Amino acid sequence: MPVTPALDIAELTVRYGDTVAVDALDLQISPGETVALLGANGAGKSSTVNAALGLFRPSAGRVLLHGRSPAEAVRAGGVGAMLQHGGLPSESRVGEVLALVRRRYDQPWPLADLLATTGIDGLLDRGVDALSGGQRQRVLLALALAGAPPLLLLDEPTSAMDVEARQAFWTTMRGLAGRGHTVVFATHHLEEADAVADRVVVIAGGRVVADGSAASIKSRVAGRTIRFRCAGPRGDLAGLPGVTDVGGDADRVELTTSDAEATLRALLAGPRSLPDLEVRGATLEQAFLHLIDASGALR
């Protein structure tokens, strides 16, 4: 028996006046997946998330969440959301806001487990205006999870967090995925997508231009990167076989090459030492930029 997708988007089109933000976008996400939506500013990520939540009526297309319309899914507690510009009522305490939201659900997430999962058990008496950026995001996550939704939609969820808070947040997300929740997040932090997501969807010009695991998307970029420590002259490196670009910083050189074997042979035959030598495939950032450039060339 076919499994109903957690998120089923078909021919979604979103327009703002004469501007097409989402252009006949198709996307299906299965229950239990952790999916990253990547794209430059204005690519259509937030508009796709907002349409999936029923925050506006799209110009065309269909959006279903576990087989329901966005409005039905929201009313039934089938989806939780953290939006990029989410707010909290001022002059209130965290515990008061959380209690208010939990009361709207017939079967809310058990309070003790919700507090432990989101790491806010010490914040219930804190005024919302006194929260740090990372604490605020964790409270917003607790509100999104209050109804124990099977689907979680996040729009730039770690934008206000420092490195430590971001790491803790994604540990929580991995725990939720392990419990069977579907997690869909739009982000511009490519390292997060690479480390956390089962699947990466790249959006450009309102359309999906790549969809697969981070490894499969990185494999679309030919070539390798060779890195080693080098504080001396580098003028000869651009002329090595296969080298297409020379970068790095004052202490480390980074060679982009279309023929790693030929470049390495030339380096090893040369006079310089090669401390901390590394050979790597394309990064997700390199693949992302390549796909964005290619999508621009096609339009």
Describe the structure.
The structure is a single chain. The chain has ten helices and 13 strands. The longest helix has 16 residues, at 163-178. The strands form three sheets. The chain has a six-stranded mixed beta sheet, sandwiched between helices. Strands 11-12-10-13 form a four-stranded antiparallel beta sheet, covered by helices on one side. A three-stranded antiparallel beta sheet has the order 2-1-4, covered by helices on one side. 35% of the residues are buried. It is globular, with a radius of gyration of 23 Å. It is 32% helix and 27% strand. The protein has helices at residues 45-52, 70-75, 94-102, 111-118, 133-145, 163-178, 190-196, 214-218, 260-269, 284-298; strands at 7-16, 19-29, 34-38, 60-65, 79-82, 151-155, 182-187, 199-204, 207-212, 224-229, 243-248, 252-257, 278-280. A hairpin with a 2-residue loop joins strand 8 and strand 9 (207-212). Helix 4 runs antiparallel to helix 5 (133-145). With 299 residues, the chain is α/β, with parallel strands linked by helices. The two termini are 39 Å apart. It folds into two domains: 7-218, Rossmann fold (3-Layer(aba) Sandwich); 224-281.
What is the helix tally? 10
Q: Average the pLDDT over all residues and give the rounded result.
A: 89
Shape: globular
How much is the radius of gyration in Å?
A: 23 Å
